Amino acid sequence: MPEGPEIKQAADAVARAIVQKPLINISFAFERLQPYEDILAKEQIWAVQAKGKAMLIRFQNQLNIYSHNQLYGKWYIKKANAYPVTNRQLRLAIHTQKQAALLYSASDIDVITDEQIASHPFLSRLGPDVLDDATTVEQVQARFLEKRFYRRGLISLLLDQGFLCGLGNYLRSEVLFVAKVNPALRPIDCTAEQILALANGAIAVSRRSYVTKGITNDLAMVAQLKQQGYGRQQYRFYVFNRDGKPCYRCGTEIVKDIAGGRRIYYCPYCQKR
């Protein structure tokens, strides 16, 4: 599933293609949304906003197209009247004179008003967005210490979009590694220094991934590994998907565990309990 950085990158691309551009037409695959096609095509889009793993396309008439990519959704930006070669099913198409924003495979799509955003079943329960410039380390730090969160295992907590939105499976492993915190711990088990490190890591690692299009590893280390001939999959992450390989910090073999059906990676030396 795309995580916050990937959705924000997609939102940027969609925005460049359709914001403040005269619309030619809009089409929905779902019959219940088709009455909105003509209404929205006559309006102008003023913003495209990522909301954690969801996206809002915002129109001047106070309507919004909400979408969530879930596991398989994918946005394509194409020239007008051009479509990708794919076996995916087209769910939403927004055409301008020069470009089109095309959403394939996603099934969680709706049209909602500005007022409905606050009560939307998904959007209304999102925690602070780690990619939002307004989200501070202090806010995230306080979040870890709230009574409803601090006794929960970090493994599940860091995937809960109601705790912090935008984090996902690869970011979870990377944040824990950067903070030097063992995945088996809960916030209540952590020192104040570890909580601060988790808060800093949640923001810094996520924003680095957004800026670098998916790289979470230390950029000086990345440059060094590139010079040595390593490919992207080898230098992209600190620990995620690197089980059996040496930790870039200490040389200890990275461990892979399965928790709740999801992979978690860590260094048993750098992240001692």
Automatic annotation (TrEMBL):
SUPFAM superfamilies referenced in this protein's UniProt entry, alphabetically: Glucocorticoid receptor-like (DNA-binding domain), N-terminal domain of MutM-like DNA repair proteins, S13-like H2TH domain
Superkingdom per UniProt: Bacteria
Pfam families listed in its UniProt record:
Fapy_DNA_glyco, H2TH
Keyword DNA damage among record annotations: yes
Q: Which GO annotations describe the biological process of this protein?
A: base-excision repair
Q: What is the lineage of its organism?
A: Bacteria, Bacillati, Cyanobacteriota, Cyanophyceae, Leptolyngbyales
**Keyword set for this entry?**
DNA damage, DNA repair, DNA-binding, Endonuclease, Glycosidase, Hydrolase, Lyase, Metal-binding, Multifunctional enzyme, Nuclease, Zinc, Zinc-finger
Q: Which organism is it from?
A: Stenomitos frigidus ULC18
Q: What is this protein called?
A: DNA-(apurinic or apyrimidinic site) lyase
Formamidopyrimidine-DNA glycosylase catalytic domain mapped to chain residues: 2-91
What's a Gene Ontology MF term here? zinc ion binding
